[in-house]
Amino acid sequence: MEDTTMMDDEQMLFQGVNFTIIPSSIAEDRRQQLEDALVKHGAVAFPFDAADGRIQSLPQITHIISTTSDFPDYHQALDQFKHVVKPAWVDASLKSGKTKNPRAFSPDPALYMNEVVICCGKGIPDGDKDAIAGGVLAVGGQYTHALSKPVTHLIALSMEDERVQIALDKRLRCHIVLPHWFDDCLRVGSRISERPYTLPDPEILDAEAGPIPPTRVSPHIRDASTPIPANDPAPSTSSRNIQAFKDKKVMLDDDLSLNDRLKGVIQGLILANGGQMTINVDEADMYICNYREGEDYVKASQAEKDVGNLSWLYYLIAYGVWTNPMRRMMHYPRPRDGIPGFQDFKISISSYTGEARVYLENIIKASGATFTKTFKQENTHLITAHTQSEKCDAAKEWGVNLVNHLWLEDCYATNKLQGITDPKYNYFPARTNMGEILGSTEINRAAMEKIFFPKIQKQKQKSAKSSAKQSEAAGSSVPDCVGGDPTARSSPLVERSKRTKTVPEVATPSGVRRSEDKENHTPGTTGSRGAKDRALTKLHDSAPDIAKFEKEMKRKGGVIHGGRRDKDAGNGEKTGEKAKKAKGRESTVSKRSINEVDDDDDDDEATEDEVEQPVKKGKTSKKAKLTPIVYRLLVSKNDRWTNNLEHEANDKSRLREIGILISDDARKVDILCAPKVVRTKKFVSAMACAPILVGTSFLDYALKHNKIPTPEKHLLTDKAFEKTHGFRLDEALERAKQNQKRLLKDWTVFVTDSVSGGFDTWKDIISANGGSAFLWKGRTTNITASKREVDPPVEGEVSQNQEEDDGNVLYLISEGVKKEFPLWVKFRELAKKHDMVPRIVKTEWLLFVAMAQYVHWDPEWELNEEVVNAAK
After folding, report:
1. Where is the sequence biased in composition, kind Basic and acidic residues (predicted)?
2. For tag attachment on the chain, is the N or C end more exposed, with fewer CB atoms within 10 Å?
């Protein structure tokens, strides 16, 4: 008789598991595969009602399979102690023959290491191993003492480590990183890129690594960078089914100020996809408004209805599935008056570009602070993705608060000013662009309820007052962080270390979330919390004064001898010679000759405050009011001002008075003026801006008539150029509009030092098109390269006109001379190391791509030893 004992044991692997699968992010064939495997091994399936979008049998269910925490019943499931796991939990359990710890497979964004399995090399001290093991477990990951296939990260100090050699010999697919990577992940409370920490040549140990490369747009902010969408949704013309609205009643608040046409479009989309409209908040399932205020907002929030803004509604229309409006900052209504304490802040940002920059600008404005594109001494904060920028250097000299975006996000998530002394807000991991984790913070549910829609419970209030009197003394302990909030985001490991010095059993972040809810307080702690809250309130009220004090302390001379003392003296006291000396000191605090900085990496449209004319200081002097800038114009190959600086200055002044700013910045151009099409650095770089091309007659007319001419009457045409190079200028400009300066986004292009025009020329052209340029000297130790993801064009997203790019080609721009041969050999080694195809090209390749604004290849542009030898 066949022995079926082992088979029976395997089939009972998931006995006691009652599960449902959230289908929105799992393909149908994968969903069926998971369901069959679970049922085969003893689990019981509960169907998910896709039409309703909710889990009907939640009390009976033990496990929810989902790739995301973004579904309606997620928080309710946590409150009922249900396991929410990724599909990988099923695969791992089947592979090992025993059910894995569900916590290690949680889609909870707070458990940011939940897909990480760490093993340490032999060279890591035992004490450090214990700390790493405890840390990774606290944030959802796993630790193993044995080096095996499931390991995703091997932490070592060098390639000579015994375990590193084993990993290489066995070809284990794991990251081999320095322990600094894990330390920095814990410090910022998120999983950051392993690239700068990867052995054998980690960038963080290279003093000449060059500029920090830009990062891709964070998926957390895609279509969620603004509270008010720029474009209206298109009327429903297809049979596409938007499940998010099926059997749902939607209420649009009056504060949206929608016109009749737009309201009709939105209502039509909702009705066409199974939804209904209502004007009664009690009937509504979804409530859409601009601000966190009003009786209807409070009612909807207290009833735990879906409360979001217009941007969230458009997101549902675009993607067709439900998402939590608190998941993304700009999908939840804004505070009408901003965040308390932000009204006096003037905030600038650095090293964030594109959609990331728009996202941060909108949060700053929604918080009630003033956003300034140009960075000045009067700014209070600079938010930056890394510290390698001119703005950051200026902030350090001027004593301006320098923080990463986590500070701003946490303030907005809790609607409360967070202290900038928290280490995670002013820490910048070496060689890391913090933009890669932008938008990972969610709106804090407990904070919103506490501030905007508290649930009134009289009995609870009485007990709170009674216990508060009994434990008044408990309020003497106040956190060091000014404006600190127990609801602020921090890693579970940090929270655990604050509570006790011993190492208790690791608690899940879901437990932390529940402890923040007033209804789940442990009896006897209410009074202590109330006293602490009062102490925090007093400390919070003093925050502006403390912030000023800290800022003055950073200045040369400190508070007592700082350069601003006499400026603040408003009591009529005569300062005499002391004031003159103080002003003298103030003028020498900074070595800079200007009092504002505009980042080179800011790619958005400039504002008027960039162009401030020098103002003469005096009792009666006033800042001259300039005509608003209508066009930013770049001139290339125009001889009108050659060797005549005075004539040039006069003409530029006259043009500025009528609204034309002559600029040399090829990345911010409205009009490009030249006698003909030329391939200068300015002209080629400016093509990425999709400017209007005009001839020199445009300037002639403006200066003669002292007014701005119609650009279309002075368009630049060059049929000979178009015939020679095989593309039309008007089509190239149309492609440039599509590309939005991202033609070479995610590209790394190498350039040799001997290229005609110099490295900086080609670097500027590549950067103007969103790429990164690196000087190639044949040293592979400090260089990394990776394949580009080439996805088919998606409707509504920016096209990069890269249809001819396979994503695996690595380019080196070089000169066709024999002295470059050794560099070519090394370059091919680099490409082979990263499994890419090396392509050594003439400068003609980049000139064509940047001018035509699409990726194209012609074999005539390729360089190799045979081509050079044949030419000789």
Report:
1. 530-555, 563-595
2. N
